[in-house]
Amino acid sequence: MSAPPVPPPxxxxxxxxxxxxxxxxxxxxxxxxxxxQGDDSPRxxxxxxxxxxxxxxxxxxxxxxxxxxxxxxxDRLRKEGCEGIVEHDLPKDLKVRVLSSEQDGRNPDxxxxxxxxxxxxxxxxxxxxxxxxxxxxxxxxx
Length: 142
Prior knowledge:
Elements: H1 10-35, H2 49-58, H3 62-67, H4 71-89, E1 95-103, E2 110-118, E3 123-133, E4 136-141
Antiparallel strand pairs: 1-2, 2-3, 3-4
């Protein structure tokens, strides 16, 4: 009959645990840093708020316009009403394509979004500010 296995000395066990804890700490730190970066955020793509707003304006869906709006743009919407925004801001069949999205260095919840707006005859490059407001990215200025 053979003797039962001898457990490793405590120093060997602690050395292994220390390495395991260091690895887990490094993994958690990398995960936390990754979640803090703009477009990879679990919140989604901030640039998607711009086409959503213009689509809502184009379809004259006031509830969708309000859901896609925040900040100064929502204040303007309340003052002018949906009809004023729809008539003033865009021609029918406007195509919107996001070119870039860059996080504001002063406010991690705000992004500067560059986009092209085309009515079939002219294409213009425009800018919008998008911010995380009440659980969603919303256009706050353009």
